[in-house]
Design goal:
mainly beta, Immunoglobulin-like, six-stranded antiparallel beta sheet, three-stranded antiparallel beta sheet, 0% helix, Adhesion_dom_fimbrial_sf, Bact_Fimbrial_Adh_Pro
């Protein structure tokens, strides 16, 4: 934000002064971050292995925030959701099957939706490491076949 100011003074009766303040503001937005290449390929997954840690895959994405105004950012995953085992996860094309997005280190859930954000501090050009795990409703019997899901990864300043 650029602030410019100017003062104009004048005198009035009874020795009082009137001061007129004139401000000119230029409000600029911080440079945007760009996110690219976020994709996950699960390959063949046995229906009996859905939810198993062996099916965890890294979410590969790139983050470019050159010229950023701050290292304090937040991340959001927007997409269609479903609730599985009490967690809000990414909905897939198969009923009862979802994709749990989690942080790589602590396995903490990264909720999918438009209200939840994951705050993080950018280190170099690395955002938080994310993982994807296929999960299912405990009572769901999955049949073999393809599945897919899509989401939008949004990064903004805190």
């Amino acid at each position: 934000m650029l602030l410019c100011g100017g003062f104009v003074t004048g005198t009035e009766a009874a020795g009082t002064k009137t001061v007129q303040l004139e401000l000119h503001l230029v409000v600029t937005q911080p440079p945007p971050c760009t996110v690219g290449g976020a994709s996950v390929e699960f390959g063949d997954v046995l229906t009996t292995k859905v939810g198993d840690v062996s099916q965890t895959k890294p979410v590969g994405y790139s983050l470019n925030c050159d010229g950023r105004a701050s290292d304090y950012l937040k991340l959001q995953i927007q997409g269609s959701t479903t609730t599985i085992s009490g967690e809000q996860v990414l909905q897939t094309s198969v009923q009862g099957l979802g994709i749990r997005i989690q942080q790589a280190g602590n396995k903490q859930l990264v909720p999918v939706g438009i209200t939840d954000w994951l705050n993080f501090t950018l280190s170099g050009s690395n955002g938080p490491e994310l993982e994807a795990v296929p999960v299912k409703e405990p009572t769901t019997q999955l049949a073999g076949g393809d599945f897919d899901a899509s989401a939008t990864l949004v990064v903004d300043y805190q």
